[in-house]
Amino acid sequence: AELGTLVLLRHGQSTWNAENLFTGWVDVPLSKLGEQEARRGGELLAEAGLLPDVVHTSLLRRAISTANIALDVADRHWIEVRRDWRLNERHYGALQGKNKKQTLEQFGEEQFMLWRRSYDTPPPPIEPGSEFSQDADVRYAELGAELPMTECLKDVVARMLPYWESSVVPDLRAGRTVLLAAHGNSLRALVKHLDGISDTEIAGLNIPTGIPLRYDLDADLKPTNPGGTYLDPAAAEEAAAAVASQGR
Ligand code: DG2
Known about the structure:
Blueprint: E1 6-10, H1 15-19, H2 32-48, E2 54-57, H3 61-73, E3 80-83, H4 100-117, H5 153-173, E4 178-182, H6 184-195, E5 213-215, E6 229-230, H7 233-244
Helix pairs in contact: 2-3, 5-6
(2R)-2,3-diphosphoglyceric acid is lined by residues 10, 14, 17, 22-24, 89, 92, 116, 183-185, 243, 246.
């Protein structure tokens, strides 16, 4: 049977993206621009006739609000919704709440990019009980000792894939159009898996905010359009370059 279509959507610009702060699991809202991007994302879905039957989101409001706004614009506000912490952004450890430009200046280009883009070097762990830690957050109570204190991309792949396999793949096998609203690094983790990108090559891949990315998958869940197809390719290219040069 034909697999359903997968549509990936990184949330629109958040207030902390706008302020150039490391965000991770800190639950910041969309900026005004981010809300606009989410509306544009919904228009692109409607124009392409890509109407989701089900939406999966992280537990963070920038992804949840983006999905709500985009689906509202596309007249699909009523579809089934599922949310899971496994789609959350990469936990940015002790960098959460820190300015990216200042961090670059303080630690230098190499360390900065190692923390942002290396596959297996996590930032220093966050101090439990500190301002931007999640240890008292009820939504993660079920995680217990599994609550991350920091994560590298490899850790995100490991905790994201079980959700992909158990919850998203069955929707695709049922022929449903799936919208997955998540984050820069949780989506990089999924794209790495789908496209079979190597641990080193993934460092160069950046995902822009608010532009739907369509994947057509074969029965083995391999993309028939490797790299996916952005619904606004020109805007995506420009925005991905801006993400890559953040902090400079
Ligand atoms: C950004 C990604 O996550 O930052 O946590 O700061 O997608 O939720 O805005 P998002 C963050 P970089 O890894 O691109 O620095």
